[in-house]
Amino acid sequence: MKALINKAAAVFFHHATWAGYWETVFQMVNPSWRDGYYQARVKSVSTLNATTVQLVLSPQKRWPKHTAGQHIALTIEVNGKLVTRVFTIASGQKSRQDEGNIRLVIRVKKDGALTPYLSALLSKTASKSASKVSVNISAPMGNFVMPKAALLDKLETSSLEQAAPEQIKPIVMIAGGSGITPFIAMLEGLNSASSDNLQSRPVHLLYFAKENEHLLTQELAEYKRLNTYFTYELLCRQKDGGVEQRLASHTDSHWMVCGPQSLYDEVANTHANLPPANDASLDSEHFAAFPVATAQTSGEKAFFSLSHNGSSLSVDNQQTLLTQLQQANRPVTYGCGMGICHQCQCVKKRGVVRDTRTGALSDNAEQLIQLCVSQAVTDLELQA
Amino acid sequence: MITTISTNTVNKSTVNKSIVNEGQVLKGSSSRLNSGKNANEQTSQRSSKDIDVGTKKTPDYTKLATQLDAVKTDVKSKIGSEDAAYIRRVILAQRGCEWTGRILLMLGFIQPLLWVVGVLSLATAKILDNMEIGHNVMHGQYDWMNDKHINSKAYEWDIACDGSSWNRVHNYEHHTYTNIIGKDRDFGYGLLRLSNDFRWRVKNLWQFITYVMLSVMFQWGVSYHEMAAERVFFGKKKDNRKNQLSHAELKRRFFSKGARQLVKDYVLFPLLAGPFFLYVFTGNLVANLLRNLWTSTIIFCGHFTGDVQTFSAEDCVDETQGQWYYRQGLGSSNIKGGKLFHVLTGHLSFQIEHHLFPDIPARRYKEMAPQVQAIFKEHGMHYNTGGFFKQYASVLKRIVRYSFP
């Protein structure tokens, strides 16, 4: 039916979707109505500590159920421009069912300067009462969730509910900084789980952060009080040493790591170095390494990996992307080569590029770029 | 991949404003240009009126580029929510006009006047869609908004010409090689002789009639022309241009978009109207005609007025940013008018500003115009502007003048 309506929109009104054709009209009534996005009302914005903001959202009814550990893309309009950032949902299914809410925990840069993105959001909520502000969100995404199946090899097919308690593998969560967010959501899920097996699954959390910057510690204490199978350690690398020694006593567990690239590398190394007889398995979610790039010059020659329509190649930061794609004999459409004609335009899914005309750096989020005036600043993913 | 915090490390405030990109070379202009037979006969930039304007001083191209870049940077910093709200308002107005028009057409049986208002309303909707929305959005003027529908890749317009074919030829060939004889096929649309750069042929004697026909059929003219019809259908080859799409693909696009338009305007919409088939059929026909006449007139006033200059391919070899600006400025002409007039022309009444800054949202050209005019004056460049009737008369004169050897 929907396909039929959209076909009609294409035939009669040369628009790909019927909703797209009417979008501006709907926005008269509801400014955050947007074809292809879900809407969520902002319930509250509060500060957790000097560098962290908590955002409570109430997604619209048709927003799909999420699983604890998944993330969403949050889109808001900043000075006419739609800006998208990805955040982990720091709450479980239960708060969504009971109160209709999801929560995001957002780290603000340390120097106290809010990003333009957050300040726009905050000023929006400051000017009106927060509950009247709506934002756009994506459907929940990601596979970093509590393993469903029992984790003993011989019982791969059976579900956790049916497994005998002694067959259930304990879980070790390894969080770094704001990487605590998916685990908080999973702990909420664990606490409200339907089956005893799920609740009685031993979970141990190793939470690394800078001293006194551990987030949501009260909630962790509360989960520990409610659930005797859950234990945690708040760790600080300078004081408590690296990850490897902490993990030495957990080689029979399923490891889940969420945090910066460096933490993930350390855990992955430890995992790789375990003797083969060991039973540990590993799930991970880590932040993209995101170098702080300087805008002034393209600087020293460096190489980045570019994924172009699914296949990848290496590009440098000296020549334009168009030149390098042509040299690699990739099929690219192009025109003027000087940024006028938009023939070589394509969708950048992620990564940062420099505009060779102005030296300006792009966002990390999805946007249209012109290959002929763009140079790589980070690894890139493009879709023609 | 979670990018919770790290994504925030780069933001717009770190933008380095190194503006001037003078010395940037117009790529690909050197080796493959000179093969057209016209190129050999040409001398440097000359006024098409055959009057010697060579007494003008040569502008300081570097300074020209710096100044115009400064105008651009200044306006670019202002672009934001106002512009986003503006284009959405225009789209809203377009939807209003379109539906008013389509409904009133069917009510023509009650009162013929309703039909007339309906036609005008529908024609306005088509003009808004083609000019202020389609042309400008497809130029990438609103790509910065990151909107799924309002961007140059996604937009398709209510005209026979396939959007992406137009995008390719117009944005690339016409805007990069503006008024370079042999490269910019928009100069005369391959049908009209508008300067001495082209050899006179007998068929030019009746080119005024050709011009009227082109205006009436403008959407088909553009569509046919943009796909380089003479090459695709008759196998003419020009070796100075690369074909980036196969002929079969071009043909497919021409026929599929063209056929879709015909079916939509003259079969589907009339059939939907049931007993009022004829009201809608003729209404669509007249609305399309009005749109064709309006758009062709505005576009001819933008490039074919008497004082507009043409250039040869050799002039533009290793062209700097300043020289590029110079050529863009002298190859275009503006039309004076009121606010509504500018909106209906898609701000192509500011053709000079449009050619200097093709991807700045067109509503900004008005505030840029006085600065551009002052800069042109300083460099002794002619800023070609005038009222609609003056400019249009000058176009007609040009068409008639070059009908003869």
Key attributes of the depicted protein:
heterodimer; A: alpha/beta; five-stranded parallel β-sheet; B: 405 residues; mainly alpha; two-stranded antiparallel sheet; 14 helices; 2 strands; globular; disordered N terminus
Can you describe this structure?
The complex is a heterodimer of chains A (384) and B (405). With 384 residues, chain A is of the alpha/beta class. Chain A is built from 11 helices and 18 strands. In chain A, strands 4-3-6-1-2-5 form a 6-stranded antiparallel beta sheet. With 405 residues, chain B is an all-alpha fold. Chain B contains 14 helices and 2 strands. Chain B has helices spanning 61-78, 81-106, 112-138, 163-176, 207-216, 218-226, 229-234, 247-272, 277-303, 321-330, 339-344, 351-356, 365-378, 388-401; strands at 46-47, 309-310. A two-stranded antiparallel sheet of chain B has the order 1-2. Mean pLDDT of chain B is 81; it is low at 1-55.
Report a brief summary of the structure:
Chain A has 384 residues and is an alpha/beta fold.
The overall pLDDT average of chain B reads 81
Note the run of SSEs of chain B as H and E.
Answer: EHHHHHHHHHEHHHHH
Strand proportion of chain B, as a percent range, falls in under 5%
Query: In which order are the strands of the major sheet of chain A placed?
Result: 4-3-6-1-2-5
- What is the structural class of chain B? mainly alpha
Largest sheet of chain A: 6 strands, antiparallel
